[in-house]
Amino acid sequence: MEHVELGTRENNAATEIIMKYIHTALMMGVLAALVACGGAENRKAAHLKKGELLFEAGNYEKARLEFKNVLQIDPTDIAARYALAQTLEKVQNWRGAAGHYLAVLENDPNHRDALSRMGQIYLLGRNLDKASEHAEKILEQDPADADGLTLRAGIKSIRGELSSAKLDVLDALASSPGHANASALLASLYLREGSADKSIATLNDALAEHPGNATIRTLLARVHTQIGNFDEAAMMYAEIVETDPDVLGHRLRLASFFITREQLDEAEGVLKQAISNIGDVNTELAYAEFLAKHRSAKAAADTLSEMIEKSPTEYRLRFAHGKLYEAANDLDAAKAVYESIIELTADVDASPNMLRAKTRLAIVEARTGDRERALYLVEEVLVDNPRDQEGLKLRGTLSLGSGDAAAAIADYRAALRDDANNPDLLRLLARAHLINGEVELATDTLLKGIEAEPSAISLRADLVNIYSQRQELDRAVGQLDEVIKLQPKNAKAYEGLFKIRVHQKDWTKALEITERIKTAFPTKPTGFYFAGLVHQAEKRLPESIEQFESALAVSPDAVQPLSQLVKSHLALGHQDVAEQRLAEVIERNDKNFVAHNLLGELSLASKQLDAAMKSFNQAVAINPKWAIPYRNLASAYVAEEKNDLAVQIMEQGIEATGGSPLLVTGLAGFLERTGQLDSAIEQYRKLLADKPDSTLAANNLAMLLIEYKEDEASRKEARDLAKGLQNTNNAAYLDTFGWIEYEFGENARAVEALEKAVAAAPNSAIIRYHMGMAYMRQGNQVLAKDNLNQAIESNLEFRGLEAAKTALAQIDAGD
């Protein structure tokens, strides 16, 4: 027993010691956990508080970092995520903000503030169904919620339900007097009613409730601007700057106001003061952009050089410098900028600035026609970063240019992995699908993009083109109507609707559209001009004259209404009336070169050659870059059998207009008829031998070869000459490149180039003919017919006129 008792005491003692150690260890562990937990909570609270203070101070970039720090500690923290979303919204990163608001709502579907903000984002993106869902969820919680009522009112306003929208917004203000968004919406509704005084009073009431609200002051300034109270508007913008002097956006709005008033010195003073007071790179970039747009490219370049010298490691300045040279088409200077960035960042592996510089350099190399060098550079970028969006995009575009649509599709899809709803990438992908013959996939791609971002006008425009090509005109009309809902002042959408109705020969609906255009653009001649064209088509010539006169009353120097007015008078057999009307136009404005030319055409038609030449020479003297009077003057010399002078005038015109396709083909046609074609070709070859950089000579020779030679060597020479013409803004050069691509069966590339040519020279008959033929081959009968009609109705002779008439007859036969 003793032995046992002794053993028990020892064991008990040992057990007690062990238990003490265990207890101590457990306590230490618990304390450590508590300390760690407390430390994390303390750090979260500190970051959140700091972020809130930075947000209130308007330092959104640093606030964003603080809120992200909270989320790194605790990804489920709703307050931090909501604050981060607000911060991203402040810097207009709508996608980022939306992502975080949606994350908040995923954790708390009834989070009232997130519902409100996300609803506003949906409203901005014109996703009205989703915005409406959020408005109703807010109002389910509180039927008198001012944010919910204002959101619903905004939706109704866009849908045209103005009376109901007004009731909602008045309820919102009754619930929350001076509510900023409700006041802004009510002010806009009053403006639409023509009640500017009520609009101003509403905003002043809101300002009394929120004296520091810059948004309300900005809206008030805009209303004053709209009704012509410019001094009051300037004062309001200046007060906003004084209230928040460190916010660049306020100063930019003040500068923009001065720019719209053509007070460029005042605008420049505002931006210079911003550099002095704020002094960050964004202010410098804003000033450089102003100089480029409103002073000169040289002034902007010189200023950027000075800025770079002071801040050599601020690469945003260097990239702005390069892009400025790109925009000015000084590609050698742009190359030098990007090469210097690559050299400066060479010691940093896969530096983002180096990769970006290589991508920009590749884009420039592609523009100069060096596809091999461009591809080499972009491959280097993608080796370092296989997900580089710009690199993938460029490689895809290079593949598409070389005819490999499948490779382009793969790259565009890869680029979309990190930015699934990017409108530019979706457009490129859709275009690649089209070139690859996958029309359904192209359509689906665009529809997917529109579903994600209903306000993406460019996607809807591409979809309209596809529907038009497939003769699904009701769907095309539907998309154009949606564009007008989003942008009530979108002139191209109205024009598209009009052209579809004209194609359908639905004159009633075409006239309805012209009335809508008159309402939307009361100070523009377009609605009256289009109405005149409809009446012309219906052979209602007196009515057409009335509409064309109305167009000229709105815009006395408008070219097309005057031309069509003369046409209608001539169709009625009233040449004397047409001549008298042109004389009146010239008496009012003797610089109206169109009127001088039209008067010359009437004189030429009636064989009054001296009078015709006088008019044409006056037109040339006023506008030496306009091709038509040169052609007409040459015709007058031909009528006098002075062929040498005719050729001399055409060559003079080609030089003065930078290679007008009208004159080039006109001269070629004349030389062909007089048997001098080979000598003309030989002269251009000699010129290129003396001046190999002469783009004008290359253009003219390429067009002559493709139009008049059928041997493969000449056709290949034409295509080789045209390669350097595709990356220009010159309409004639783009036309040559596009037409040669058309002749080689590369219709997608032809359409792309010719669309740019038409945009640059919409009144060129030969370009319209080429455009029409390319659209016809593409299957877009609506646009083909429109362009062929414009070419034929110009009453100008060009090579292909008979082909244009034949093609138009084929389209009409198929309608």
What does this structure look like?
With 815 residues, this protein is mostly helical. The protein has a domain at 658-815: Tetratricopeptide repeat domain (Serine Threonine Protein Phosphatase 5, Tetratricopeptide repeat, Alpha Horseshoe). The protein contains 45 helices and no strands. The relative contact order is 0.02. Residues 1-15 and 30-37 have low confidence and may be disordered.
Q: In a few lines, what is going on in this structure?
A:
The protein has 815 residues and is mainly α.
Low-confidence stretches: 1-15, 30-37
Question: Which whole number gives the mean pLDDT?
Answer: 90
- CATH superfamily membership of the domain at 658-815, which one? Tetratricopeptide repeat domain
- Helical content, roughly? over 70%
CATH level-1 class of the domain at 658-815: Mainly Alpha
Give the assembly state of these chains.
single chain
Q: So how many helices?
A: 45
Broad structural category: mainly alpha
Shape: globular
Let me know the largest β-sheet: none
CATH topology of the domain at 658-815: Serine Threonine Protein Phosphatase 5, Tetratricopeptide repeat
Q: How many beta strands in the DSSP annotation?
A: 0
Under the CATH scheme, the architecture of the domain at 658-815 is Alpha Horseshoe
Radius of gyration: 34 Å
Q: Indicate the proportion of strand residues.
A: under 5%
First-last Cα distance: 120 Å
